């Protein structure tokens, strides 16, 4: 067998940095999850944009300047293998094709981008776990209320 055979496959895999792009609703907010495979420890830059009426609008980015109308409503959180866009008070006027673009410093395979069409009525609610990631104060509140719950339990005995 030819040991050189798997090489092109490896190269193709290397290009596929973004694995998955998904969107969901968390209350009134839109969350767009851009999952990627970490190929390098180099710093990662990102750009989230929306295309509507054939025009591209940058929502949040470390690559270029985001538009004013989105800047105050958008923030991005980065976790292991996940870049997460949070857009507050999502309405039908925010519907469109959302694009996640990732770029690792000094990675010459070029930009990775993936897009998803977001329509309010078709969005699913985010899974419960994501609530913890997005809202740490909620988690804190839960932890603080645990002794209280135990106390209540004790009383009912």
From TrEMBL:
GO cellular component, one term: external side of plasma membrane
InterPro entries for this protein: Ig-like_dom, Ig-like_dom_sf, Ig-like_fold, Ig_V-set, THY1
Keywords associated with the record: Cell membrane, Disulfide bond, Glycoprotein, GPI-anchor, Immunoglobulin domain, Lipoprotein, Membrane, Pyrrolidone carboxylic acid, Signal
GO biological process: cell adhesion; integrin-mediated signaling pathway; positive regulation of focal adhesion assembly; regulation of cell migration
GO molecular function: GTPase activator activity; integrin binding
Residues covered by the Ig-like domain: 8-117
Membrane topology: Lipid-anchor; GPI-anchor
Statement: the UniProt record of this protein carries the keyword Kinase: no
Record function comment: May play a role in cell-cell or cell-ligand interactions during synaptogenesis and other events in the brain.
Protein name: Thy-1 membrane glycoprotein
């Amino acid at each position: 067998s030819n040991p050189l055979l798997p090489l092109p496959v490896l190269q193709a895999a290397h290009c596929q940095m973004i694995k998955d792009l998904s969107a969901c609703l968390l209350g009134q907010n839109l969350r767009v999850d851009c999952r990627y495979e970490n190929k390098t420890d180099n710093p990662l830059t990102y750009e989230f944009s929306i295309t509507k009426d054939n025009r591209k609008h940058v929502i949040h980015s470390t690559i270029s300047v985001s538009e004013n109308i989105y800047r105050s409503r958008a923030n991005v959180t980065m976790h292991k293998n996940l870049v997460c866009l949070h857009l507050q008070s999502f309405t039908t006027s925010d519907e469109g094709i959302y694009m996640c673009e990732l770029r690792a410093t000094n990675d010459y395979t070029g930009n990775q981008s993936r897009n998803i069409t977001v329509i309010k009525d078709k969005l699913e609610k985010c899974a419960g776990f994501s609530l913890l990631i997005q809202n740490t104060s909620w988690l804190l509140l839960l932890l603080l209320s645990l002794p209280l719950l135990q106390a209540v339990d004790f009383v009912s005995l």
